[in-house]
Write a structure and sequence with these properties.
The N terminus is likely disordered. This protein is α+β, with helices and mostly antiparallel strands.
Length: 232
């Protein structure tokens, strides 16, 4: 009887435990958008919940959440007792991405454009956890947005080299994710305007130019000092 109880507890854990999800949104320089979702779940739990083999289970869940009419691809690997499924998709424009956005975590994606100023907002409508029927059974969700432009404002948990990351965990309060950027200014470039003419220079070129000027100035100073010493 004790053994049966243990097995029942293990089965309950497999059924009620959630998976972890990483969502990556990449905004490209030409305003096109790329999406990638990586979901990691215990393989045994996946098979029990779907009553299918691993490949059919992944395809079944993919079809359940696939967006009609959009070009997406799916692949999966088995690793350390887990199934790691990856789904990728592309959109020609940011507006196309917003118009076709669907999610069980966020109500929608909001896009506001004011000239070159672009704001993207996601409003969370469901919590992670198992406390009620409206909660989503995920262990955690990581959202990353990659932006090649100069970011003016954001509320990400972490920002590093143009990648903005939000970490959503079990039983956290509902959150609003937002980011604002200037699509007229690249992240690693400085925009210079002279009259009606505008051009951009990469920061690395500016740094090399300043370094070159400093080296040239040092060389000139050394030459001048040497000439003075020779005259003496």
């Amino acid at each position: 009887m004790k053994r049966i109880k243990v097995l029942l507890v293990l089965l309950l854990v497999l059924i009620t435990a959630g998976c972890s999800v990483e969502y990556e949104l990449t905004i490209n320089k030409d305003n096109s958008v790329s999406e990638k979702v990586v979901a990691i779940d215990n393989t045994e739990r996946l098979l029990v919940n779907t009553n299918l083999n691993e490949k059919d289970a992944v395809n079944y869940l993919y079809q359940m959440f696939d967006r009609d009419g959009l070009s997406t691809k799916i692949s999966y690997v088995s690793k350390d007792g887990n199934t790691v499924a990856t789904v990728t998709g592309n959109h020609n424009t940011l507006q196309d991405y917003v118009d076709n956005f669907t999610s069980d975590l966020f109500s929608n994606a909001e896009l506001v454009e004011d000239g070159d100023k672009v704001t993207l907002v996601f409003n969370q409508v469901a919590r992670l956890g198992k406390d009620n029927s409206r909660s989503l059974i995920y262990d955690n969700i990581t959202v990353r947005i990659k932006v090649p432009f100069k970011v003016l404002d954001h509320n990400a948990d972490e920002a590093r080299y143009g990648v903005y990351t939000w970490n959503i965990k079990e039983n956290d309060n509902l959150r609003t994710l937002s980011i604002t950027y200037d699509k007229g200014n690249m992240r690693d470039e400085q925009k210079i305007t002279i009259g009606n003419f505008s051009f951009s220079i990469k920061y690395q070129y500016i740094a090399f130019t300043i370094l070159g000027l400093i080296v040239a100035a040092i060389i000139i100073i050394v030459i001048i000092n040497n000439r003075k010493n020779n005259k003496m």
